[in-house]
Amino acid sequence: MSAALLEAREVGFAYRGGRPVLADVSVEVVPGRSLALVGESAAGKTTLLRLLLGLARPTTGQILFDGAPLVPDRRFRRRVQTVFQDPYSSLDPRRRVGRIVAEPLRSLRVFRATGASRAARRAALDERVAEALRAVGLPADITDRYPHQFSGGQRQRIAIARAIACEPRVLLADEPVSALDVTTRVRIIDLLAELRETRGLTIVMVSHDLAVVASLCQHTAVLERGRIVEQGPTAAVLGAPAHPYTRRLIASVPRLRARSPRAPQDGD
Fold first, then answer.
1. How far apart are alpha carbons 52 and 221 in whole angstroms?
2. How far apart are CA 214 and CA 194, in angstroms?
3. pLDDT attached to residue 110
4. What is the value of pTM for the model shown?
5. Which residues pair with 37 in a beta bridge?
6. Sheet holding 80-83, edge to edge
7. Which of 48, 84, 139, 222 is deepest in the core (most CB within 10 A)?
8. Residue 228 and residue 42: Cα distance in Å, rounded?
9. Residue 267: pLDDT above 60?
10. At what angle do helices 182-199 and 152-164 cross, to 10 degrees?
11. Positive or negative CA dihedral for 209, 210, 211, 214?
12. Which of these, 199, 210, 202, 198, lies nearest to 247 by C-alpha position?
């Protein structure tokens, strides 16, 4: 098996003065094996994602990046990017799309060390922005428009373009389709699957939607009250769950009732 890109090793986390949110959590993010973190609300999924992103430090245990303790420096930020849940609040409404997608390229100084002239660096940045937009199915000529001019699904595509612009190895996605309608959800999941294949992205996704998990992630970790109760290949975890909590989680997914065939009526 390939070495882990990201790893939580016996991690615990508690907010100051509060009860533990995570306890003894160990997961690995392995190249080419997308990971889903599932569980009910307050299970600790988003907290774990924040730790993997370097936005918080564990109270106990370690977060490792490429086998060493995670340091949220420029190298890490270039290799690990994120997409948030709400496409309406994750994009700065005062900035044009081109500036939004270029944000990580500028902040991480992706083209600063090339030795090229300022004009050449600007041209390279503009081309990278255009390429990222095309990769998510948006035309490159939208760079002068503002987020409010786009639908929710288009805004999420812009957010994904921003995340992939610096060519990361890992994409951390916190409920990336939960704020979208059903048809748009399917399209965004298909897009993430395509980017996973074409760009070699490894996706770590928090989701309560087990259908999304089954279609996108090869490995699943189930959290209950801050502890991992089961993890393994998604097909095994969802198809033959070993832990009672996982079975209850799957049983709670709404299913359409089968309807009896309607008797033919006159005029049918």
1. 14
2. 15
3. 87
4. 0.90
5. 206, 221
6. 80-83, 170-174, 202-206, 35-38, 219-224, 227-233
7. 48
8. 13
9. no
10. 20
11. positive
12. 210
